[in-house]
Structure formats: structure tokens, C-alpha cells
């Protein structure tokens, strides 16, 4: 990123200082590098070398994944109106603050929105640039190209379905799982494993086994994130607790709660849950009551059980894949990590 910043600075120091420095902060501040880790150990587990030209190319593709994640974070915060990300102002808020501090003309919030769109777009462009110049040999390029192309479209499709679901108020657990899979599960675990395996020259059966593991682990990751979004908070997650509820996100957690409220004739509980969804003015006291409802209806326990089932399925698929050590143990540990509750819960 420092090389690209120098290139940009030759055209505009202002652009480099304002946009690129903020993008670098978003990408480098915090985060667990989950996607690069799954890609790397997918590569190693399928026979990829730990060092050399091939390994260097793989690490560049892994870095490109982090840039795609940066794009997703910036745009997701913008669409959801989130004020915080990883304990600091979200990109659109930071840009608005820059506008105010500089005493610029016009609306600071509108400036923040526009600048954040550009920063997210830049992250996506740079991810593609990095992939194209990673130094993959011709065989690896042919093997991995379709997965790379599909992953970017899938991620945006998932984001759109999430946005659309907020508008329709969809409360189907099955549809919520589908959105969770497309929005995050695919590009967090399944596609990184697929990319790593394909670059290592893995055959169709091994790639299919890794994708099965990644599919289950990726959905478990998103369900865990949904729980954290309701019961977490700035210290634990870097974002305020309850943001998904305020934004009207149709999570599996909420869909299960609504389904159970209807099934047991708890009409007042259903009414309160629906009233909370999309309520930007939801206060801490009412959020606490909604949290109690989600727990009392058994929705939290149901999501925890589903996470456990998904993690077990992913671990079984990894065991059946018979990966080369130490990748077999590293990937199993990663699956347990993405499915586990945050420390202290």
C-alpha cells in the first residue's frame, strides 16, 4: 500500500493524505486477518510451499482479500449508517470530521458519504490490481480466475439482498441463512479456501471437500457475528450493541425469534420485536428488553446450537479432506475460532 500511496501522491498529495491514509487505517487497524489465514492454510494444506515465488504470489492474493474486506467494511458502514468501526469513527464519519475540521464549504455529512464511496471503490480497484500483478503462473491463474471473479459478485449480491431484506422485512430463517452465506460466509471462508487450494493445484474432489467445510464455517462465522451485533458493544466488537436491530437487518437470530413468537402465540413479543427492527431511536433500556425477549424465546440458544452443528460439519469435512500437516490442525483451529463466542462471554 505504501508504494501505491507514493504513486498517488505524485498526482495529488491531498488525495493521498486524506483518502489513502484513511483507507490504510481501515485496512490495517484491528481485524483478525481471517480471510488471508484461510487462503494461506488452504494453499499449504493442498501441497503449497511455505516459501518461494509461489508462496509470495499467494500472499499477495491474500492481501488483495483484505482490500476487498476494506471495501466491504466502508460500504457496509455507510449503508447501515454505522458510526463506529473497530473502535474508531467509520470512514464516512471520519471524512465528515475532516470536512468540518478544514472548514470546507457545503454539507459535511454529504461530503463524508461521497468520500467513503470513493475510498471503498479504491480498495476494490487496488484489490484487482494486486491480484493481476501477484505473479501467479499461468496454471494457477487459470485455476483460480473463475473463483476470484465469482467471489466479488457473490459478495455484492449478498450485500444487496441484505439491504433488500431490510426494506421487505423478510423474516424467513431459511432466507436469512441464504443472505448470511452470500453476504459473508462465502468470501470469509469458502472462497479463500477455494482460492488457496486452486492455486496449489488441488483436484476437484479436494476443492469440493474444502468448499463444504468453508460453507459451514462461513455461515457459523456470520451467525456468531449476528449474535455479537446484538449482545456485543464497542469494547467487544468495536461497534455499538444493537446496530443490526436499529438498521432493520433480517438476521437468522431475529427470524428465529419471530417464528417462535408466532408459533407460541406470543403476539405482544412479536409486536415488540417488529417495532424494534429499523428503529434508529432504540435506546439502551429497550434494547435490553429486546435482548431478554430473544433469549426468552429460545432464539439465542437455537442460534448457538446451529453454530455448533455448522462447526462440527466443517471439522468433519476438513478431517475427510486429509490435508497436509500442519495445515490440517491450523484450519481446524481457525474453524473453532470463527465459531467460538468472544472471550469473556
From TrEMBL:
Keywords of this entry: Magnesium, Metal-binding, Transferase
Single GO biological process annotation from the record: isoprenoid biosynthetic process
Coiled coil: none
Cofactor or coenzyme needed: Mg(2+)
Family the UniProt entry places it in: Belongs to the FPP/GGPP synthase family.
Molecular function GO terms recorded: metal ion binding; prenyltransferase activity
Keyword presence, Magnesium: yes
Matching SUPFAM superfamilies: Terpenoid synthases
PANTHER family per record: GERANYLGERANYL PYROPHOSPHATE SYNTHASE (PTHR12001), SHORT CHAIN ISOPRENYL DIPHOSPHATE SYNTHASE (PTHR12001:SF85)
InterPro entries: Isoprenoid_synthase_dom_sf, Polyprenyl_synt, Polyprenyl_synt_CS
Name recorded for this polypeptide: Geranylgeranyl pyrophosphate synthase
Amino acid at each position: 500500500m505504501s508504494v501505491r500511496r507514493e504513486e498517488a501522491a505524485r498526482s495529488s498529495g491531498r488525495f493521498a493524505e486524506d483518502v489513502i491514509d484513511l483507507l490504510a487505517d481501515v485496512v490495517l487497524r484491528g481485524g483478525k486477518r481471517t480471510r488471508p489465514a484461510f487462503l494461506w492454510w488452504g494453499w499449504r494444506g493442498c501441497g503449497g510451499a511455505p516459501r518461494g515465488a509461489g508462496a509470495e504470489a499467494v500472499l499477495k492474493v491474500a492481501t488483495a482479500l483484505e482490500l476487498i474486506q476494506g471495501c466491504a467494511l466502508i460500504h457496509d458502514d455507510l449503508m447501515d449508517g454505522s458510526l463506529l468501526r473497530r473502535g474508531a469513527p467509520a470512514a464516512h464519519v471520519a471524512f465528515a470530521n475532516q470536512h468540518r475540521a478544514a472548514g470546507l464549504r457545503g454539507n459535511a455529512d454529504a461530503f463524508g458519504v461521497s468520500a467513503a464511496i470513493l475510498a471503498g471503490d479504491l480498495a476494490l480497484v487496488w484489490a484487482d490490481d494486486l491480484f493481476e500483478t501477484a505473479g501467479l503462473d499461468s496454471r494457477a491463474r487459470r485455476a483460480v480466475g473463475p473463483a476470484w471473479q465469482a467471489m466479488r459478485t457473490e459478495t455484492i449480491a449478498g450485500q444487496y439482498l441484505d439491504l433488500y431484506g431490510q426494506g421487505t422485512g423478510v423474516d424467513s430463517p431459511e432466507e436469512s441463512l441464504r443472505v448470511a452465506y452470500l453476504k459473508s460466509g462465502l468470501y470469509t471462508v469458502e472462497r479463500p479456501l477455494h482460492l488457496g487450494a486452486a492455486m496449489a493445484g488441488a483436484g476437484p474432489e479436494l476443492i469440493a471437500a474444502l468448499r463444504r467445510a468453508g460453507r459451514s464455517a462461513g455461515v457459523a462465522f456470520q451467525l456468531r457475528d449476528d449474535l455479537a451485533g446484538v449482545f456485543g458493544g464497542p469494547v467487544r466488537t468495536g461497534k455499538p450493541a444493537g446496530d443490526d436491530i436499529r438498521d432493520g437487518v433480517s438476521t437468522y437470530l431475529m427470524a428465529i425469534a419471530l417464528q417462535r413468537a408466532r408459533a407460541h402465540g406470543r403476539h405482544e413479543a412479536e409486536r415488540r420485536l417488529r417495532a424494534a427492527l429499523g428503529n434508529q431511536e432504540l435506546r439502551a433500556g429497550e434494547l435490553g428488553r429486546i435482548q431478554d425477549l430473544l433469549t426468552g424465546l429460545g432464539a439465542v440458544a437455537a442460534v448457538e446450537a446451529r453454530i455448533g452443528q455448522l462447526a462440527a460439519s466443517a471439522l468433519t469435512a476438513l478431517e475427510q479432506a486429509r490435508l497436509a500437516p500442519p495445515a490440517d490442525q491450523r484450519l481446524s483451529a481457525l474453524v473453532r475460532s470463527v465459531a467460538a463466542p468472544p472471550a469473556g462471554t
